[in-house]
Amino acid sequence: MKKKLKVAITYNEANPDFYIKPAELNKKKLPFTPYFEVDNFTPIEEFELLSERLCKKNIDAYTINIKDDIDILLTDLKKHKPDVIFNFVELFKDNARLEMNVVGLLELLGIPYTGAPPIALANCQNKVLAKRILNTFGIKTPKFALIKKIAGRYNHGLEYPLIVKPAFEDASVGIDNDSIVENFKQLKSRIKYVLDNFLQPALVEEYIEGRELNVAVMGDKNPKALPISEIDFSAMPDHLYNIVSYQAKWDPLHESYHKTIPCCPARLEKKIEMKAKEIAVKAFRAMGCRDYARVDMRLNEHNELFVLEVNPNPDLTEGAGFMRSAETAGILYEDALIKIIKLAWARRNSILK
Fold it and tell me: Residue 43 sits in a domain of what CATH number?
């Protein structure tokens, strides 16, 4: 880049004092042997570190925590006039469905930003709509039913075991070990839990037993799939299902966090690897994603691939998730961040002015 770009790393943490320092977690005695060491950074510190590392790469980067206040964002944009917004906003007023509204504001302001546009964020978050779009493009997803209210019986026509999820959440919110149900009694109880606690419909899917693959995709006009990562469930104890629950993703005190072990690159037959990458890129395009995304899928015993989720703007923590695949592809952490910034900057002449 000839010009030294000014990049505003924008996120929303309304309660920054909420986080327990990970160092404190390491002092706790756990009833199992942990696999991972917990790092010493809170999410807010991670954003500051990301900013520092970009500055060392000749990017004029700084952070904005909008704290559920759009005026904070507008004031900062007017004052600092960043060239690009590195968008890490995932919810607003504790509502994940408002994520797209913040991005919509950036569209109206005509400021280039990283990641998915509003329509892609909305479509991916609406799990039923996402399934219908993917199915239209010939991409398999698990069979499902949408339950909007408590009933005496549910004529879903699905085969047990089933998995029950909130219909409009992401990041595995609302998914835990009890999300897997094996009979009507458990199904009825879990549907009630979702309706009562998340105030949204329950998505009921056939549970696909098999290998879980995460396919990272990077690019805009010409997206490419990166090396595939697999979640190894072989260490999962019998009392936990082989799923990537909320606890497995975000709770370092939970056993599943230490028993869902990523392996990248995944050991797959070449034919299956190529098919998974092809499906991931096709899903990326179908859902209108941009710059970077992660497509989660299951490979069953018959070598059939089912897309579980298309995740726009996934976590960019170094060494984890999307970045694990980028690093396996030989793309250094800072270089991956800069590539995402460049993709956003390249769109500056095509956005609303």
Answer: 3.40.50.20
